Task: structure prediction
Amino acid sequence: MTFDYAHLLPIVPEIAVLVLASILLLVDLWLKDEDKGTNHLIAVFGLLVVIGLTGVVGGGEREIVLSGSYIRDPMSDVLKIAVLVVSLLSFVYSRDYLRDRGLWVGEFYVLTLCAVLGMMVMISANSFLTLYLGLELLALSLYALVAFERDNPSGAEAAMKYFVLGALGSGLLLYGLSMLYGASGSLELGAVARAVAWQGADNQVLVFGLVFVVIGIGFKFGAVPFHMWVPDTYQGAPNPVVLFLGSAPKIAAFALAFRLLVDGLGQLHADWQGMLVILSVISLAVGNIVAIAQTNIKRMLAYSTISHVGFIFLGLLAGTTEGFAAAMFYAIVYALMAAGGFGLLVMMSRQGHEVERLEDLKGLNERDSWQAAMMALVMFSMAGVPPTVGFMAKLLVLDAVISIGLWWLALIAVFFSVIGAFYYLRVVKIIYFDKPEVIEPLVVGSGARVALSVTGLAILLLGLFPAALLTYCQAAFA
Amino acid sequence: MGFEKFLFYVLAATLIAAAGMVVTRRNPVHAVLFLVVAFFSSAMLWMLLEAEFLAISLVLVYVGAVLVLFLFVIMMLDVDIATLKAQFIRHLPLALVVGVIMLVEIFLVVGPGNFGGESFPNPAPQGPDYNNTRELGLLLYSSYLYPFEIAAVILLVAIVAAIRLTLRHRPDTKYLDPSKQVYVRKGPDRVQLIRVPPEPRRVPPTATPTSGVEDEA
Result:
């Protein structure tokens, strides 16, 4: 139990995020109201530094430090950088919105960075304890962020729903983890995997714990039938919070599912595969069909999230390295697409007018054709139209599912994707072929404009050259 | 061993009874007091497991601090129990069926078949000089250092979130400023005598005049 400073080297990115949050907390005290932009600059440059640090520290063989609590492997490097980039994008998108609404306070950045820290902890957790603590850190920050606009009753209502259901999900997950601990005698994922392999898959306690763990993961992902909080939270929360909540945490949820189901309980694959099949099929069905009926674009994108979660589960349940790489690719790509989609809503929202109805997008092409083109790209990508990256992501997942012989599952997924394409293309139709209600051109800050362009072009380029990201995803499971 | 077993069953029965009372009491203050009983019984159960530090901290932290706060909040809020109870009764049959099924399932899994004495034998008893608190501290600051630090960050988030969601600067709030208080000196600025003329005795009006009229009188 000796302490070696070299063990701190892999967690330098986490330490840097925490230091950044603490600096912002202090700096904010001395800033006058008109100087709050400094917070934004510190947060953005700080995140850039953390991305650099993650790249420097990362690479090489997996290492487990801090008494088995922390793991750094190729997967954690890629996922952390993805989380950081998406969070950085969401900061850039939200700048003008926060300034106009008087929400431009240091706490927004502090809470968001703590959520980022929670996600990074989850991504490189190697024990049940670290995984759970990271999850709670993320969840608590998000509850507070959803209620951030404190004079808005719908935000408070959304936060309350999110809090109650999130706490229920955490409780179920914790109960499952305690069962697994009782059956395996260890909190560390490697030791749990060895214990499971030794006991065999017919241990009643293990399977009992597994059920609760899968339900907990379902809650955190927002998979049907544990999806109730998703549309309500998305609808009630302020747009920048939805942008953050709907994008990066999906990457962390993938890490949570992978660490628990594959790193810890890989031996029970036959058991959790069946559960994930059920979750993914009903998520695809409910997500895509209910989204058609929505007139609120935030609710529509919430149901679209649910259907994308079904796809991520499809990749996971394949249980092959190919499937894991496909699911990881999908999670990262989805976070990028969600950041683009919600980012546009944030940019269009003006003082006193929250863009949330589909009609608000009418004739966007006449108001700002470049932003309209970017939004159309995002929608095509979500629908899975080639040559965008959404198509590649869906193709890889389906390929993984077919290669394990579940071709009927792939057929179901394609069927519901075709249904889902309707409401994505409806948005494109509204943008291009409907008469605008407001004629005035869109006023958008240069930072947000650049961010949306980067997102849109990344979606297009990754679709044309998927290997740029895919090789990293495949290397993570090689 | 026999007496310990007897104690265990008594405490466990108390715990379950108290927990049942917590959810069924009509008066929320009573519910909180039963929760105190439940925490005391579980603290005693931990004591039987020779986890003295945890038992004492459960009493100190939960009974001493958290439940007192609970009591404060409940006494300050006017919770309308009747409406809450109506929902409770309406869903009671379904909840009972689900609860009983869950209980049976959990008992089958957690029961003696999987967690019996033979699969989990008692650990060897420790000598009288064994310090529970010290061992716990050593573990917490060495093996569990990383989770411990994350827990600290979670507390930080709780503070930041609570302040952000509730703190409002109100200019009309009256408060003492100690840094100004220390500058008060003996002399005319410390005590100011104001001569108030005696109020003339007034006959209470028979009708109900507005307050403005009364002031002018």
DSSP finds 19 helices and two strands in chain A. Residues 9-475 of chain A form one domain. Chain A touches chain B at residues 1, 3, 11, 18, 25, 66-67, 69-70, 105, 107, 110-111, 114, 117, 121, 127, 129-130, 133-134, 136-137, 140-141, 143-144, 147-148, 150, 179, 182-183, 204-205, 208 (CB under 8 Å). Chain A has one domain: 9-475.
